[in-house]
Amino acid sequence: MKLPPSITRFNEEAITLKKRRIYAGGLIADDSWHVIGIQALETFDIFHSIVFVESNRTQNHTPRKWRFFSPEQNNDNDNEDFTLLTQRGIYGPNTQVHVEPFIYEQKKEPPMFREHLMRQKVLETWKKLGMTREDIGLMLDVDEIPSREFLKAAQICLPADEKLIQNNKFAVDWRTDDKQTCYSPLLRLSLTMFEGSPKCIHKEEGKEVGPRYKNKIFKRFISTSMIIGACIEGIGNSTRHIKIPRVNKDIYGNYQGGRTKGYGERRDYSKLIPEQKSSSDKTNNEKEFKEFYYPLYNSADFRQMFKVLTQPLWRFGASHGYHLHNFFDSADQIRFKYAHFGHVHDTAFSVPLGGLNADMSLFVKCAHNISDAENRKKRINQTDLVSIVGGQRHMIEDHLEPLVFHTLKGYVDARHEEMVALVEKDEEIYGRADKFDGNHLYKDNMLTHPGKIYNTELKEEEKTE
């Protein structure tokens, strides 16, 4: 079997006799049908099941309306979004799609704690759906889209490189027999990043692969990951693998979240194996440590544990999938996200869209097709794409862009035009800040095109004077 460049870390000569089932899952909220549809098409009929978890509150505890509520949650009334997502077969006729509601009322939550709890519900649902130690768990958000080729390879190929195992390196191990120690079961994907539009691709700075490719390579998103079922909490052998303390407890007294120091983060197992002082201790006999049965992985471990990366293919810019960041339908949805989810921005509804952060500066400058040379985050110019891959346009089409970008005629231009209109409409109200480059926080002197909010505030100031 000859594998394409984007999946060369799989062993093409080591094929499993039984195709692995892939159980996918992640969070869902106000994600646009752009990313849902693109993910569904790319993964069509590959997943055994995909589980989405929707919360009644945002990460900063702000109440939000249910979007994908089932008829049972709404007095048997139909919900178009729920029906389209779960009952119309958009992920394939053989893929089960589930939406699990999440209600949790802890007013003082540690940062990102709600996300960990929500992803833990994904693991619990995988178990209810029949996941076994031979299956793969794939934790991803809706805008994180593994390529079709990568998923197919994961189903039948062995990810571990035997040479790495023999040399005691950090190879990914997906064996499912009693010799599975769960020392290194996590395979982390490397995704090409798009910002708001198929035409706005994040550029990696400071990397060089030969003179032809200098400063013209693709930035990677590396939070999406896979773990073999034998090493997933609730699926693997909980008797053999020790249960460990976690950095937080939920309101029921259960350990949740990331691992306490010394229990595996950054390869530090010093609390489990006293002889291992730290991951940097060169006197450690790593082979002996591998023979220890290590803790099973919970939902936080999928995102936080040591990043065993599949081989970066800087030469052609190939990736294992795509991160479609901020592919929203309106600027208000973007502003709401930055006001209430993840890393909260207090000025999300007061400053220009491009002044929110480095990502949004790239977003807006790409929409206006103006230079981002001074930006902290930059985009790859469309005119550079062919030269990046040495004139081999098919490399981009096959391994860089999602299927929909080059199979659905007119989509790329249509989405970019939608993004431009979104930006222009928002700037009528909030203005534009071409001087913002993402290296510092936004200040009023970075405003270059005032909007209605600025003009209204200016008039109010004149009245008071």
3D structure, described in words:
- There is one protein chain.
- With 465 residues, the chain is an alpha/beta fold.
- The chain has 14 helices and 17 strands.
- The protein has helices spanning 33-42, 80-87, 113-128, 148-156, 162-166, 286-290, 299-304, 331-340, 358-368, 385-388, 393-399, 403-407, 411-430, 452-464, and strands spanning 11-15, 22-27, 49-55, 96-102, 136-139, 144-146, 157-158, 186-188, 191-195, 201-204, 217-218, 220-221, 225-228, 246-249, 255-259, 321-325, 378-380.
- The strands form 5 sheets. The chain has a 6-stranded mixed sheet, with helices on both faces. Strands 6-16-9-12 form a 4-stranded mixed sheet. Strands 11-10-17 form a 3-stranded antiparallel sheet, with no helix packed on it.
- Helix 1 (33-42) links the parallel strand 2 and strand 3.
- It starts with 10 loop residues before the first strand and ends with a helix.
- The model is unreliable at 207-216, 278-287, 308-317 and 389-399 (pLDDT under 50).
Percent of residues in helical segments?
A: 25-40%
**Straight-line N-to-C gap:** 77 Å
- Outline: globular
Q: What is the overall pLDDT average?
A: 82
Q: What is the β-strand count? A: 17
Q: Oligomeric form of this entry?
A: single chain
